[in-house]
Protein 1
Amino acid sequence: MRMYDLIYDKKMGRALSREQIAFWIRGVTDGSIPDEQSAAMLMAICWRGMNTAETLDLTLAMRDSGSRIDLSSVPGLKVDKHSTGGVGDKTTLILGPIVAACGKASGLSCAMFSGRGLGHTGGTVDKFASIPGLNVELSPQAFLESLARTGFANSAQTPDICPADRKLYALRDITATVESIPLITASIMSKKLAGGADALVLDVKCGSGAFMKTREDARALARSMVDVGRAHRLRIKALVTRMDEPLGWAIGNALELVESLEILRGQHPESDLARMSFRLAAEMLLLGGAAQTLDESLATVSASIQDGTAWRALVDFVALNGGDPEVLARPDRLPRSAHHVEIRSPQVGFIQAMDSRALGILAMELGAGRRFLGDTLDLGAGIRVHHPVGSHLREGDVVFTVFTSRPERVVPGAFLETLRIAPEALQPQPWLLETVE
Ligand code: URA
């Protein structure tokens, strides 16, 4: 078999066989296929697409390029959640402890491997790393112990999981080939299948801050991932959610942790962030068999916030994994950049739109995110968004507070450009667009 012929077949729009796909991914993993050829193949897939069988074969070949996690020593079902990536998305920090608390009675636990932030989107691992001492790179044994003892485990993915994805993702990042439904499906689902959970809830983001800009594309991605999961007898459901503005008031690692702690304490229960986190948690409980109906599941979630069991599950998880649980009740002890700069509205009007991608990039430039994988983070840097889309502003109202160690680099105009302010308010949009199962 020659890689040249595979690229040619895909360029001409032909479907690749399982053997061809396995040959490519084996070559990516052992380094025998040069990056130039993989880059050409990735671009051909972007243009020509892949059918369901090819997407499934690519997912499996990528899953089998490395190790798989065996969670079977922990009794009961394990449920996972994955988001396709957004700005200010801290739902994992909230729903992990909720699922741990609510799943206990039926033996359901929440097993998640998370990523580090890259580009305009943050990563759960970095947000958890704001807790002093917390081990965010658990060994397989520590991961299983956390799952068994606290009902929740979250760790950075180890390098032996899906090495082919790591290589291909790095190539996609520099060849403008990230936004492809089969490539995103295979990248995400290979890692999820290797992670060993029995059930998976997907949060597919749609809008200006997401990979999928239109509802049609987001729906197609959700369908593709659900189909791949189903083919592997995974219990799976996707929620398509709006990512046209940052989720919640915080962008940046420690700030996002503070906001998550507020939600777990029962604050802002009507916010999109709380509603989305609670719904995702409820769907996880349903898929994992810990509830029979969505209403029952939502009521259980709500009770775990009211009675403090979700909070205690977080405390247990942090304490077991080396973190300082005291800081959870004392957020002033979390990392915080030395300076803050207030950005004020130059005009009166309603916020009609907020460019979440641009805000994510600004937060990255403050040190809250990485331009390249090896970059060091400033965990205390970030942006507080004071008013969501739809709010009325007076001239001089503070719209953003920017937390930074380099205040001289903050250009207020760059922040104000992310807003569209106009005399009329637009109809508010729901956070949940549709579900796919
Ligand atoms: N997240 C991933 O892990 N892979 C993609 O391709 C896109 C988002």
Protein 2
Amino acid sequence: MSAGPRSLNTAILDGAATAARVREDVAADVKRFAARHGWAPGLATVLVGEDPASAIYVASKRRLCVEAGMSDHHRKLPADAGQEEVERVLRELGADPAVSGILLQLPVPEHLDVQALLACIPEGKDVDGLTTASAGLLAQNRQGLRPCTPSGVIELLDTYRVPLEGRHAVVVGRSELVGKPMSQLLLARHATVTVCHSRTADLQTHCRSADVLVAAAGVPRLIGAAHVKPGAVVIDVGIHRTDDGLCGGVGPMTIAMLLRNTLQAATRQADG
Ligand code: NAD
């Protein structure tokens, strides 16, 4: 996502600039929080194993957390760490008052039961918004921590004042991480939402009727010009490396929302 108009009729939503603005806002609020409470919000990242992409993501999250004035509580476990060991670390972090938010970097090695691990994260510290408790709060449109990637998409749409109420939003993808929470957040903003997935018949017709189209299928170039109604707003959530470089991606927004969630979690904890 780069800045600036592409042609007279096309404009790009600038995810990097929006993410930088969100991070600045969070940093200012963290300063006020620390002045008021005498401590700064803390983010715990838990990385199990050696997956190189995960290591890069976690390093970025930690760096930007410190840049926003928050404390960094990183735990690194070996790829062969057992279920009990990882659960114990998550419970310790859950009980640590200096830790406002806990992020278990996914995917974890296959021998681990990811749902049982997520269940060790208290709902109030679930800054990735992926526990069953957080998903339930979202499904019922009650206050809670929301998954970072879809809430980053909403923030981006709001920044560019894209109207959602009464508009037709089409989400391609129904994963627990992106597609499903994305559709629920759009619904909470009073959009009329269609969710498409791998078994959807005639994807193109659905997409072409969208005022707002969010592509999160994990299939590069699945959505082409023929899928887009003139004037529609399109958000490409996918991150793909192709011969021409990276395509798609709202990556910077995801981390910015993680920082905001951590501040929100700390505020709730401080206010009791
Ligand atoms: P996933 O593989 O869990 O889910 C993909 C979804 O797309 C599924 O629900 C599937 O039904 C649907 N789908 C697959 N093929 C389809 C097709 N041909 N037509 C219609 N629907 C189809 O992936 P995910 O975790 O939801 O991630 C989706 C994309 O978002 C990936 O490219 C991922 O890299 C990216 N992602 C980006 C960020 C970020 O920070 N920007 C974060 C998470 C995921």
